[in-house]
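tool_call predict_complex ligand=zinc ion
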Amino acid sequence: MAEKLYIFDTTLRDGEQVPGCQLNTTEKIEVALLLDQLGVDVIEAGFPVSSPGDFNSVLEISKAVTRPSICALTRAVKKDIDVAAESLRLAKRGRIHTGIGVSPQHIFNKLRSTPEKIIASAVEAVRHARNLVGEVEFYAEDAGRADNEFLARVVEAVIDAGATVVNIPDTTGYCFPEEYAAKIRYLVENVPNMDRAILATHCHNDLGMATANTLAGVLAGARQAEVTINGIGERAGNTSLEEIVMALRTHPAYGVDTEIDARLITKASHLVSSLMNMPVQPNKAIVGRNAFAHSSGIHQDGVLKQRDTYEIIDPQDVGINESSIALTARSGRAALAHRLELLGYKLEKEELDATYEKFLDLADRKKEIHDYDLLYLVGDLERIQNQTIKLKFLSVTTGTLQPTATATLVLKFGDRERMATASGNGPLDAAIKAVKSLINETVVLQEFLMQAMTKGSDDVGRVHTQVKCGDNLAHGYSANTDTVRAGVESFLDALRCLGVTEKPDKD
Ligand code: KIV
Ligand code: ZN
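tool_result ok
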């Protein structure tokens, strides 16, 4: 039986303090409820003394979420701890996470203190917190750059004072995995009362080693990992929950596992990314758009024969229905035949060879081949006619009154033109609603990612969309100086891939 690794999620604290990622209380509760379903052990819900909003969020999350411990961050300052305890008063399992800097940089430069005074403040903070809540965790800030002997003295003192979890943050993301593992091992071997507390990892990603350092720390004896969904967090971010969970699950021989329901990982990633307006890089491990997409012909052939040839994780295990075979100039016949079969075409060898030649010719000119391109290649003109949705006209008005915007547009379905008007929370919302009113399927815009190419208000906006229709998922892309138009075109691009057709006219 595997030993349990406790998952402490700090998406709503370390993740949320990133500029632009701020959530309101309702949104934080939505994330906390999903973290609860995911099975995390601790939710760090905020830093209550920092603002009334953070205080309120910790209070409301404590009411709404009762299974995991709800944690509030403080400095080693009496007022912080009192405010945190007050915000946790309704929590079924409340935890105060208090701490102080322990590296030379923090002790002498930031705090202008001495090692002895640091230990005294740490002990005082833990004792005070212990009188107010059931669980006290201590963080030794910048432990990554701290002297191990001094760190061991701090850890021993705070455990004596009542801390049951001691967090060893690599605050600046400085350590190498072996160095971080050695630090944890040193504490396990040299702190006399270490058996009375759990050691926690909290690694930042400044050198891209957060996950490696966390795993090294766990293999050296840490039993709590502090993580965020999508790895969001200060600067280059924190260790990502999904990477730790799946790394341990793909390596059961290490004998450590979490109680996370990994099938909810993709859902959690999408929720956090969309609420925090924080796009996930396409090649991000586990949750990136391309994490299960195969584009080279050799890889596609291998995956179609047997999934694990090129996939170490079954996409379904993290909540994705199927690995995606992206058709590009590097795809082989097997991938083309597979996609054609999904579209209902079973070609004989000679027909397939001929279609493959045409496919390569087209793929050399286009980045990715979509289903409607394939219909063109196999000559299904009637289906192409129905699937070719184009934007002919778009006009939006926007302002400060509710609803804030109205959009009127004309779409061409083949050679038929249809017009629609809709209003929404903004010009794009209005335009997407207008498009939806003209199509025959229920589609869900799952991801909308807009990026400026350079800087300036006249810049070209690039828009990536991810749209779901039943079990099918498609990606759309467009770029335009008019960002609303780019958004609508990108949405239409995805609709074309999905083969969405026109809603029948009422008359
Ligand atoms: O990175 C860090 O040191 C922290 C502490 C506040 C736990 O986030
Ligand atoms: Zn941190």
